[in-house]
Amino acid sequence: MQRLYDFLRRHPTGVDSFWAVFLFGISVVGEVARQEARGTDSPALIIPIVLLLCLVIALRRRMPEKMLLLAIGLGVAQVALDVETTAADFAMLVIVYTVAATGARWASRTALAAGLCAAPVAQLRWPNEHSGALGNIAVVVFQTVPFALAWVLGDSIRTRRAYFAQLEERNARLEKEREAQAKVAVAAERARIARELHDVVAHNVSVMVVQADGAAYVLDAAPDQAKKALETISSTGRQALAEMRRLLGVLRTGEHKEAGEYVPQPDVGQIDELIEQCRTSGLPVDFKVEGTPRPLPSGVELTAYRIVQEALTNTRKHGGPNAGASVRLVYFDDGLGLLVEDDGKGAPHELYEEGGFDGQGHGLIGMRERVGMVGGTLDAGPRPGGGFRISALLPLKPAH
């Protein structure tokens, strides 16, 4: 049954043609019976008019406006040639519905006007001699109602189709917007993971390299110091692996890991441990906190930690063997201030001015991106007396 229904939906003109043939047969048989009852021959004009009215049924969906005009012309011809209404005139009712549902607006209005005029004109042309004035009026009303209902039904179908088409268009637009937002979210998440990986790898590997060089230098002369350096390398490596596991865990869809496998996100409270690690690796760091410490939004906490981490990593990489650094955290009423300075030789000009050189300088780019995400400001550059300075202001309210 469903296959038959699908077939009929795919071939609407074929269905209309079937009903047109059916209507033609009924009309011819009915007209022959009526003429025999009257004792007259069937006029030659009735067959072409019936045939054309049935053509209106067959082609109503392909060319509704043209079939409407043809039906109106046939109606006028019937009145002018005194060809009484037949069963084929049902095509006029059908074309009124079709045009109201699918035709142009001008055709819909024309169909309504023609439908409302059809019954009165027919009654005036072929009045019922056995009915009085009130009876003829009742017949006109009775015959006009189907045309009005056909037009109202067709116009309602048009409105409903337009509504559903609008819903489909809106859904398609929303789907495209969701896809675009998903792509933006994926790109943002990739950038975030890339920044996190850079910070983790750059800082911890630089600590491990410094400790490894120191251990190799004092291995024979001071075995205890070499052992301590190797222990630092081991703990730093484990910490780096734990953080990388946490970052890579977000990429594993469909896998649920125990919370204990991953370390928490770094925050301001862990800056003490970070600085102590730097001191252990041979970089003297002066650390001070001003203002009243208090809990901060997680995004601000992570951004502050990563800025300090990247700044100290850059000091270790570019400051030279005798460089020292200072870190200041200032709690304001509406934000958190950061100042990281060193007295080394400073980073190359292209790293902080151009934002990257031969694959380098991505740490400063990452800093600016992190600060921008929380609505803050960052300034990085050489100090007038030598060394490098990084200052940032992170607001406690999210950026709009």
Automatic annotation (TrEMBL):
MF GO annotations: kinase activity
Catalytic activity annotation: ATP + protein L-histidine = ADP + protein N-phospho-L-histidine
SUPFAM superfamilies linked to this entry: ATPase domain of HSP90 chaperone/DNA topoisomerase II/histidine kinase
Keywords from the named record: ATP-binding, Coiled coil, Kinase, Membrane, Nucleotide-binding, Phosphoprotein, Transferase, Transmembrane, Transmembrane helix, Two-component regulatory system
Keyword Disulfide bond: no
Keyword Coiled coil appears in the UniProt entry: yes
InterPro entries: DUF7134, HATPase_C_sf, HATPase_dom, His_kinase_dom, Sensor_HK_TwoCompSys, Sig_transdc_His_kin_sub3_dim/P
Domain of life: Bacteria
Transmembrane segments: 12-30, 42-60, 133-153
Entry's EC annotation: 2.7.13.3
Residue ranges occupied by any Histidine kinase domain in the UniProt entry: 306-398
Coiled-coil ranges per UniProt: 157-191
Listed PANTHER family: NITRATE/NITRITE SENSOR PROTEIN NARX-RELATED, NITRATE_NITRITE SENSOR PROTEIN NARQ
Protein name: histidine kinase
